[in-house]
Amino acid sequence: MAEFQELIKEAKRGNPAAQNETGNCYLFGTGVARDEKKAAKWFKKAASSGYPAALVNYGERLLTGVGAKKSPEKAIYCFIQAAASGNEDGVVMLAQCLQQESLSESIGNAFAKYRDTGSKYAFICYKIGRCFEDGVGVDADLSAAMIWYGSAADEGYDEAQFRMGVILLKGTDTVPENKEVGIMRLKQAAAQKHADAGRVLLALGISFDV
Fold first, then answer.
1. Across the chain, which distance is largest between two alpha carbons, in Å?
2. Is 0.90 topped by the overall pTM?
């Protein structure tokens, strides 16, 4: 109890890490009576400062409507913001939401809003693609990964261009071989000085511009 009192003092001073942890205490009943609404309140405070873990936590409250008014679109926007910071939980939550057809409109609206203001759209698309390729938090789905890699590659993200190139060179059970497009993507990555892409092209005896 004493530890919680010290924590909430720090949270009230505006420390987002303390605010997020206060939310966790209320969520799980650690050192204080469990209270979903108070948990959501503290997650929201920390999320408003851009604290990545809190963005995920508050997004989960908004997605489920537990402790906060349900708003899938706002929830997904929180996950996007968290993913943009490199938070892996935010990426996984996005990937899980993408597997729910009922959320397609909310996802579209949230991404449209982010693209108007955010600068890491390509990075987010790549991370979602990686999540699907590696099966992190979701079933592995290389076809879905390629869609998101494609979005990132079209925005000039070199690692997505490289991943697409490598996969398309040989193809898989779910992604047909397409050497022409694969080489094109590798050349795009190599032009941005992506070392691995350059090495693959040289091994194939293919010249490229840098």
1. 68
2. yes
- Closest by Cα among 85, 49, 86, 80 to 62: 80
pLDDT of residue 1: 74
Cβ distance 31 to 4 under 8 Å?
Answer: yes
The rounded mean pLDDT for the chain is 96
pLDDT < 50 stretches in the chain:
none
| Beta-carbon contacts of residue 37 (< 8 Å; ≥ 6 apart) | 67, 68
- Amino acid identity of residue 42, one-letter, is W
